[in-house]
Design goal:
The protein is mainly alpha-helical. The protein has a 3-stranded antiparallel sheet with strand order 1-2-3, covered by helices on one side. It has a two-stranded antiparallel ribbon with strand order 4-7. It has a two-stranded antiparallel sheet with strand order 5-6. Strand 2 and strand 3 form a beta hairpin. The longest helix has 20 residues.
């Protein structure tokens, strides 16, 4: 072949060009359409990857606005925005999609708004920790049942059955959505099983001997907080969202919760309620109010030094677990305190009253009346519970059956 032959050189360059990547920067083109009313329209192309690695060019023709309302410069700027949005969110071919890309660009935008506001941050952290850290860079077609079930089995050696079940549910939900959007032919997580050897979540309550030990290793403020957890059965987010204007004599209004430092709605609609304050705790709260530098009606009852809400995680690890460690009681957490409340209260009154006191949704009728006023039977039971926990007989070392 002659080097100087223009036809031969042109053929070579053309052949090379077919295999070169396209320049993604484009301005598009503006056109005016319409006979009487002139309108701007924008033309541009998007490039979609195919399963064989090649690209397919697709033409886009979009309306931009009336010529009378925007000059050519504004129309050009709007076209640039449209091109950027179209090329940024363009989905790659299914064979090139990773789990992380699909979760962030397809699953989360659809599902996040369906999750409760209070649980969204925790749900996203959970998926990040247990799914994306392990499988985030895995391509969707590379998932198979054996790999996923092996991973589930490994986690079951370290985590409780409830955690494993949640992992399976979220994994199944994400991959099921991929099938729905035709990015997977079949969901490999559809028939994953939770191993029988997965341990059950801890369901312990504090024993009568352990309660004074925990309280002994707490400061005055934290002792009051833990007493309120034990007697009132509040969730941690509800406790640290309490403001002084929530206190109305011998009751506390529960109408908000703290989640990741943000004040949000309570866990359920039935959680909005009034909680009865026994006389001794009501008195201690008034003493605490006198010692608090800022006790305005809209201030938190238990603020940080900066006046913000206490972090539930900080209180758990810096206060509860530390007190449990000093008392020789492992595994102390907020759930244990709430469980202790329900365990002992059940010895003093009916299950119906316990459900009302803890504001469980399973007692819907009771909760609807409970929101308006605290039943007399509940008030008596809470007072009895407070007296019982303050004067525990010696020699008892187990939770009543």
């Amino acid at each position: 072949m002659d080097r100087d032959d223009p036809i031969s050189v042109g053929s070579i360059l053309k052949a090379i060009g077919r295999h070169m990547g396209r320049d993604r920067y484009q301005e598009g083109s503006l056109v005016l359409v319409g006979k009487r009313v002139k309108k701007w329209r924008g033309h541009f192309y998007v490039y979609e990857k195919q399963t064989d690695g090649s690209e397919k060019r697709r033409f886009r023709n979009i309306p931009l606005g009336l010529k009378a309302e925007m000059d050519k410069g504004k129309a050009r700027a709007k076209l640039r925005e449209a091109i950027a949005a179209a090329t940024k969110n363009l989905a790659p071919a299914p064979a090139c999609v990773t789990l992380r890309w699909f979760y962030e660009n397809r699953f989360l935008p659809q599902k996040e708004q369906q999750w409760k506001v209070t649980s969204r941050p925790k749900t996203k952290r959970f998926i990040e920790n247990y799914l994306l850290k392990r499988f985030g860079d895995t391509l969707l077609p590379d998932f198979d049942k054996f790999t996923l079930q092996t991973y589930i089995n490994e986690l079951a050696l370290k985590f409780s059955k409830s955690v494993i079940t949640k992992i399976r549910v979220y994994l199944n939900s994400i991959l099921d959505e991929a099938v729905e959007l035709e990015m997977l032919v079949k969901n490999p997580a559809g028939r994953l099983s939770v191993p029988k050897f997965a341990r059950r979540a801890a369901t312990k309550a504090l024993t009568p001997q352990q309660i004074p030990l925990i309280l002994f290793h707490l400061s005055e403020r934290n002792r009051l907080i833990v007493r309120m957890f034990l007697v009132l059965g509040l969730r941690p987010g509800e406790m640290f969202a309490l403001r002084w204007n929530d206190k109305d004599g011998n009751s506390l209004r529960i109408d908000s919760s703290i989640s990741d430092g943000i004040e949000v709605e309570t866990k359920t609609e039935g959680s909005d309620a009034a909680v009865w304050l026994p006389a001794s705790i009501e008195t201690e709260l008034e003493f605490w109010r006198e010692k608090t530098p800022k006790a305005a009606p809209d201030e938190f009852i238990f603020p940080t030094t900066r006046g913000t809400a206490i972090s539930t995680n900080n209180f758990l690890y810096r206060v509860l677990k530390e007190a449990g460690k000093r008392a020789g009681i492992p595994g102390v957490n907020h759930q244990m305190l709430r469980r202790t409340c329900s365990t002992y209260m059940a010895q003093l009154t009916t299950v119906r009253d316990v459900q009302a006191h803890l504001r469980h949704t399973s007692a819907k009728t009771t909760l609807e009346h409970y929101i308006k006023s605290v039943p007399a039977s509940v008030r008596v039971a809470v007072e009895s519970l407070d007296c019982m926990l303050k004067s525990i007989p010696s020699g008892e070392d187990s939770v009543p059956s």
